[in-house]
Amino acid sequence: MKLKIFSVALLAATAMAGPAFAAELVMKIGTVSPGDHPENVGAREIKRLVEERSNGDIEVRVFTDSQLGNQREMVEQLRSGTLEMTWVTTGFFGSWVPEMGALEIGYLFKDREHSFRAFAGELGEEVAAKVGEHGVELLGYFEAGMRHLTNSKTAINGPDDLQGLKIRTPKSTYHLRTLEMMGANATPMAFNELYTAMEQGVVDGQENPLSNIYNAKFSEVNEHLALTGHLHLTHMVLYSEDLWEKVKPEYQDIIRQAVLDAAVVQRAKVAADDASLLSELEKEGMKVTRPDRDAFAAKVAPLREDAIKEFGDGAKRWMELIDAVRDDG
C-alpha cells in the first residue's frame, strides 16, 4: 500500500512539473489543405527534419485543413507574431506587394521545370527581398502546381466554352484577370468556402492542380475537367519576421535548411500526383478534355503589357528573367 501511495504521489508531482524534456522552441505551421496533399507532405517533412536535426530542442506542430484560419488570416498572424510559418502563392501576396500579382499571369511559365529555374535565380532573390519588407521572412519555395479547370456544366475545348461560366479563383488580381481573358466569369473566393459554393451552385467551377481537385473531392460536385495548364503557381514558405528574430542563429540555420530539403520531397509529391491522379479522377466520373493551350495563351497574352504599364520596369524585369530561362540549356 505504501508503494502504491508513493507511486501515485510521484506521478502527480511529475504531471505538475511538466514534460521532462520540454522543447526550447515550439513552432506552428498552418495550411489550408486536407490530408495527404503535397502541402502537408512538405509540412510534415519540415517537422521531421527540424525535430531530428535539433535533437528535439525544436517541436513543430502542423495544423492542416484551415484549422488556424484561411490564408489571409494566417499571413496576418505571421505579421502580428502569433504564428510561425505558413505559405501562400506569389500572387496571393499581391494584397501587400501589388506587383507580385504579375507573377500569376496565365502561361507565364511553360512548365514546372521552367518555374523552378526562374525562382532558383535572381527572380527568387528579388521576390524574397520584396516580401521581406512586410513582416515576413521568406525561407524557400514550394510548388503549388499546374492548374486546370473543372466545372459542373459543360466540356471545355476552347475559350468559347468558358463564356458565362462562373469560375472561382483566389483573391489575386492577375490570376482573376487571366480567367476573365480566357473567357470565364471569374469569382474570387477563399478555398475553404469553395466546395460548398460549387455544391450550392454559387459558382459553376474552379481551377486548381490535380492534387487539390482530388483531395478536396471536387469530383463530387464537378463533372468536367479540362487540362488547360494555364498557371503554374509557386508557394512562398514564410516565417513571422518578429518571431524569426527571436530564434537562435543555429536554429534558424536548421529551419531554413529543412525548408529547402523539404521542398525536394514536396515537389516530388506534386509530380507523383500529376502522374497518377488523372486516372483516379476519371474513375470517379470526371470527363476529361485536352483543350488547345495556345488558343487560351493568345487570349491571355495582353496581360503582360498591362502589368508592365501598371508596375513599370520592375514587372518588365521579372518577365525578362522568366523568359531568359524558358528553355533549359
Rough shape? globular
C-alpha-based Rg, rounded: 22 Å
Q: How many distinct beta strands?
A: 9
What is the residue-mean pLDDT, rounded to a whole number? 92
Largest sheet: 7 strands, mixed
| String of helices and strands | HEHEHEHHEHEHEHEHEHHEHHH
Structural class: alpha/beta
* Number of helical stretches of at least 4 residues: 14
Strand content range? 15-25%
Helix content: 40-55%
Ends distance = 78 Å
Uncertain runs are 1-20
What does this protein structure show overall?
The structure is a single chain. The protein is of the alpha/beta class. The chain is 47% helix and 20% strand. The protein contains 14 helices and nine strands. The model is unreliable at 1-20 (pLDDT under 50).
What descriptive keywords fit this protein?
9 strands; 7-stranded mixed beta sheet; 329 residues; two-stranded parallel sheet; alpha/beta; single chain
Quick overview of this protein structure:
47% of the residues lie in helices and 20% in strands.
